[in-house]
Here is the input.
Amino acid sequence: MFNRLNMILPLVGACLTVAVSNGAHAQQAPTPPPAARISAANPSSFDAAAATQAWLDTVPADKRAKSNAYFEGGYWLILWNFLLAVAISIFLLASRTSAALRDSAECKSRFKAIQVSLYAIPYLLLVYLLSFPLNFYENFYREHQYGFATQRFLPWFREQLIALGVALIIGTILLIVLYAVFRRAPRTWWIWGTIVTVIFLFTVTFIAPIYIEPLFNTYKPLSNPEIRDPILAMARANEIPVKQVFEVDASRQTTRVSANVAGFLGTTRIALNDNLLKECSLPEIREVMAHEMGHYVLNHAAKLITYFGIFVFIGFAFSRTLFEVAVRRWGNKWSVRGIADPAGLPSLVLILSTFVFVVTPFLNTVVRVTEREADAFGINTAREPDGMAKVALKLGAYRKLNPTPLEEFIFFDHPSGRARIRMAMDWKAANLPAGESSAGESKPSSH
Ligand SMILES: [Zn+2]
Here is the structure.
């Protein structure tokens, strides 16, 4: 859902959605391989490292190669998307297209807010148009190539247009407010701009489940009691005030299995998708839902927006200096007057894109650490180590299962399959007693 709003919400969407996939065909989840089975007679002989390796070894070489190719291709896409953003910005500035858009907006109205909208709408349309070939390759052609997409071109393009409409509305409102800040605080705009951006992120996160997500998918309460009741039991055990769990028809767009927690405060909603219902067993579904509940209980939406606000603050501080340098050097050539001039937007975008590109490993790490917290919550709530391992393997259809530590640090916004299975096997090896276990009753307390 959120990936359609990438321009506005690069982080929030990525972190609140756990997407797992097992390709076009449902695969039978492997039972625990022998090394991952715990012996009732001798539980201390369980070796978590060997068990992890045994799970990883259940994946056939061809599937592993395909998933590695898909995921590693994504590394290059980060670079191509960055270079494209840079090229578009330089083109709009150097050709004076940006200045021409500003001049035309100033001719049509004397109100600043209207001038900003008259600049923003054609600017956003132009950027969409110029980045369409890469967008088409990445989100349509490549997804079909790897068997993840289920939509033909026309329904896909129709959703692209809806997403573009949403981006135009949200983007224009944000730019009107930001440029009002830039005009009033030409020296301290980067501080006030951060506050505006963070408030804006909270607002969009809050309204997304009500106004944005239904534009693409239908959410309905999950009715099958065999699935619903065990999920609601976990919610009750963790003081989560939900009366129902939602099912979303994600198979309209994709074969990926996923679940998500969206919204904020009163609009929070936990939903699982129809692919998950079709292709996962109850232990796996419980594990995924417990992970999503972890995001809720650990207040991850608010925390991630706060962390993201810190990145925005550093990015804006960095932009403030570089923007002034750029205007001093090329302002005449580009016909850009200063920060309050909308014609300078492409250079602000250029600087911010560079910043985001450089800090990608840190952004990914902030999200990955948060996901790991949700994993820890999930395993303790669902208590399904084998279910967690199976889900991690299904995720492995599109996320490299066994990366190097450096690769995981730079590119992974969720823990790798190996890390997740290891967490599950460590949990299994610890063999935790339940509440009123006989061990706790019979032994004297030793605090
Ligand atoms: Zn998650």
